[in-house]
Amino acid sequence: MAAQTVATPADPGTTDSATAESATANPGSVDLGPAAALSCRECGHRVPLGPVFACEECFGPLEIAYDFSAYDTEELRRRIESGPANIWRYAPLLPVPADVADKPNLNPGWTKLVQADNLARELGVTGGLYVKDDSGNPTHSFKDRVVAQALEAARAFGFTTLSCSSTGNLAGAVGAAAARAGFRSCVFIPHDLEQGKVVMAAVYGGDLVGIEGNYDDVNRFCSELIGDPAGEGWGFVNVNLRPYYAEGSKTLAYEICEQLGWRLPDQIVVPIASGSQLTKIDKGLQELIELGLVEDRPYKIFGAQARGCSPVSTAFKDGHDVVRPQKPDTIAKSLAIGNPADGPYVLDIARRTGGAVEDVDDAEIVDAIRLLARTEGIFAETAGGVTVGVTRKLIESGLLDPAKTTVVLNTGDGLKTLDAVAGTGLTATIRPSLDSFHEAGLA
Ligand SMILES: *Cc1c(COP(=O)(O)O)cnc(C)c1O
Ligand SMILES: [Zn+2]
């Protein structure tokens, strides 16, 4: 590891005392751009950047603390706008070195923000409806964003194997990123995942291990492996690299606002698995406000779950602060985390912003997948069915205001969850003749 002493913003502009502070907060050795230290979300205890994820004082989750003090708003905006058409345009706001775009990685992000007028008409939305379509990422889910951050952290900490516990999409994202960056990969999934996800994870050539159990069992196993000599040199993107990984979700917030012309949406509907994505979208929006890149005005964040794995929406509706674990049983396997680590923070954010957490059952998920495909030509995986279905429900119940600008996330690709719409197929089978065509009523 290089013996650098200061983790300053990539382009510090003017130097000041806060820069010096970050140097003391991070006396060590890694260059992760503006990331200054790890800070406990519960008690604020700070530790130097490293492959740790839990506070030594209170076991709270650690997250990245930045030093953005040197940035000039207009200069930062220009720099972002002239950056590459991927997440690295936001490198000054991420825990990555300034030259990250030159390193071998999958360059995810800058996915389409689709103005969904047809869907808006069906749902009665008049204030502008957009689908942020993250199926356009390199491995066809939002997970490429988070893995790209974890990969940089793995490089910085000298890891040689990339690993994770996964509900499916993460496995593919890790396999692909490792292949491109020249890392070994070994990823762990529940043994009964959708075939599409298994193939997509395996094709990149790394080790793919099915665990007899559900995601929460897989996660527990990975925690054990990290503490074992067998796991030495392994970066588990969503365990010991979790603080870095999680920051990747901020790029969804950045992109949505920039694509809206540096404007906050009024309402965002976000799927919840562990809840990490939702909490970091909120963090990203807060940062844009603090940096002066968007106007400071209220926004609401809504969480979306599948009924068959709805620990957070259950707690929200019951008015509880604690999230009681559930045993998942839903077709939305990418969201099937029964014991979501960031559940309590999701509840805080939904309540603080005036949003809500809602759930839809499997039939409603399938309906919503078809609705989005039929209205906008977007084939979403089950997670997209969850957000679109929940959006419809929130409009019906009056919690989501149809007169306000609304962004709905589609975080994955329908080709990975074909079983969900298995009944979909041919309109008719005919002989190759005009008679037969007419008989079938197709004219
Ligand atoms: C992982 C995942 C999410 C969000 O997961 P969090 O753990 O809540 O960050 C959303 N959609 C899809 C398709 C995913 O794979
Ligand atoms: Zn703490």
Report the radius of gyration as a whole number of Å: 22 Å
CATH architecture of the largest domain: 3-Layer(aba) Sandwich
Number of helical elements: 15
Let me know the largest β-sheet. 6 strands, mixed
Series of secondary-structure elements, N-terminal to C-terminal: HEEEHEHEHEHEHEHEHHEHEHHEHHEH
Residue ranges: pLDDT <50 for 5 or more in a row? 1-27
Instruction: Tell me the CATH topology of the largest domain.
Output: Rossmann fold
Q: How many domain modules?
A: 3
The spatial strand order of the largest sheet comes to 4-5-13-10-11-12
Instruction: Report the principal-axis shape.
Output: globular
Look at the structure and give the CATH class of the largest domain. Answer: Alpha Beta
Tally of strands:
13
Fraction in beta strands: 5-15%
Bound molecules: pyridoxal-5'-phosphate, zinc ion
Write the layout of secondary structure elements.
Blueprint: H1 17-25, E1 35-40, E2 46-47, E3 62-66, H2 73-81, E4 112-115, H3 117-123, E5 129-133, H4 143-156, E6 161-165, H5 169-181, E7 184-190, H6 195-202, E8 207-211, H7 215-226, E9 234-236, H8 242-247, H9 250-259, E10 267-271, H10 276-290, E11 300-306, H11 311-318, H12 343-353, E12 357-360, H13 362-376, H14 382-396, E13 406-410, H15 434-439
Helix pairs in contact: 3-13, 4-5, 5-6, 9-10, 10-12, 11-12, 13-14
The chain binds pyridoxal-5'-phosphate and zinc ion.
GO molecular function, one term: threonine synthase activity
Protein name: Threonine synthase
Cofactor: pyridoxal 5'-phosphate
